[in-house]
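User: Second chain of the day. Same drill as before.
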Amino acid sequence: MNVICDKQLLVEAVGNVSRAVSAKNTLAALEGVLLRAQDGRLYLTGYDLELAISTAIEAKVIAPGEIVLSARIFLDMIRRMPSETISITSDEKMLTLIKGSLTEYTILGIPASEYPELPAVNQTTEISLPQAALKNMINQTLFAVAVSDSKPVHTGSLFDIKGGELNVVSVDGYRLALRREKVAFDSDFSFIVPGKSLSEVAKLLRDEEGDIEIAVSKRHIIFKAGSYNVISRLLEGEFLDYRAAIPAGGQTTVKISTRELIAAIDRASLLISDNIKSPLRLKFEGGVIKISCSTAIGKAYDEITCQQTGDDVEIGFNSRYMLDALKASECDEIQLLINGALSPIKLVPLEGDSFTFLVLPVRLKSE
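Assistant: Same format as last time:
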């Protein structure tokens, strides 16, 4: 293989596909990036048997060929190159010369034949939606994806299409995040994508106009965004019935500045840490939110005004879970719906129903 390409294009492509590369694997090829040069393009792939990211950049192909190079070392080398173009030349013994201006490295590659084949994604159902919309949907729900494997299906987000509306739902047993968006798709259809895969897809999506094509088969999904293809396995299992989990209405309705509430919770939770856990108390009383916290270190108290209708109520919750939901709302003002001290606190926009976040309360001990 002998290929010459633009340094910036190569660094960006290798950096992006490397995020799907295994850090440590018994199969050495999976710690590398597969490079294939042909027809005036350099194709690059990273794959860890669950997630694959591939792309292609324009290149001057002097001799076509393919090779696997260590992702970490290769990326470090090309980043440090002082030139605007980089040449990559490998011989039949897999000895690879990477050269930019007067700087050159020689490393041993791995035969492309040792690289596992990407899964074939056949008989797909295809959906299309704006890149910016999907990016926003992922970013507003990813925080609630379960981290532990106690119920593996909840380590992903449910994509549920009903009546021309796409619902993306994440749940981890302590909170729920739901984001809605209209889609041009007539059938009812659902699938579950791992949180790790969605995180990588979101990083590749752009805020500008342009659609992302999604092709879903029985076991895999392909996201096609610009020059990138992301292939991920799907999760199997019974996802939570989120429609039944979301309480209707609220005995207490509170409208408040999102930024003010975030700042007040931030201040009051200074005495809480991973080692010193304690719930934050919120007392909604006549248009004032009284926020307090008591830990082994000491006590904190703060209060802010709000627009309140309905009953006064006192509720406790994990401060980090509440902050995650408030930050994900991306609204200047937010509405809190509360059905008593032991019912989940519901966060919704002032208008419309583009998102719904639930945060489960913590039972408070009487002081």
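The mean pLDDT is 93.

User: Great, on to the next one.
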